[in-house]
Amino acid sequence: MELETxxxxxxxGDADRIDELAKSVVEVAKxxxxxxxxxxxxxxxxxxxxxxxxEFDRATDEIDPDDVARRHQSIIDLRTILDExxxxxxIKGAIGEHGPTIVDLATSNDVDRVIVGGRRRSPxxxxxxxxxxxxxxxSAPCPVTFVRSDDIDE
Length: 154
Fold this sequence. Notes:
The protein is of the alpha/beta class. The protein contains 7 helices and 5 strands. It has a 5-stranded parallel sheet, sandwiched between helices. Helix 1 (18-32) links the parallel strand 1 (5-10) and strand 2 (35-42). The protein is globular and about 45 Å long. It starts with a strand and ends with a strand.
């Protein structure tokens, strides 16, 4: 299988692991000369918070989630690293529940690999809070690389 497109999905919990995610995507995409889809997925409430924090003017124009993602710090940091390694990328923003929306992005962008981050979770933590990474691992239309943080969420 030829590797042409890699989806790196980030969300609000990934700010502390940007370097690890970037390292993983560079290791996969650069040797294959693949394009990286840098995707930031927002729930509706996260999206509203980000629009306020980034001072988007909601009264003037319709706001494109791709534009919001471009201005988000985690995407800016990832862009800098990918530029340093001369890796091609496109930026996507999406609104929805994290797991299903990442799977939808993987499908609609015909990606060959998905990279997601997450924390180790106790069995209770998974049962109570669910797991975005688990949803993606089980439902993605392609192989998934999970970049784990050593922090444990309860």
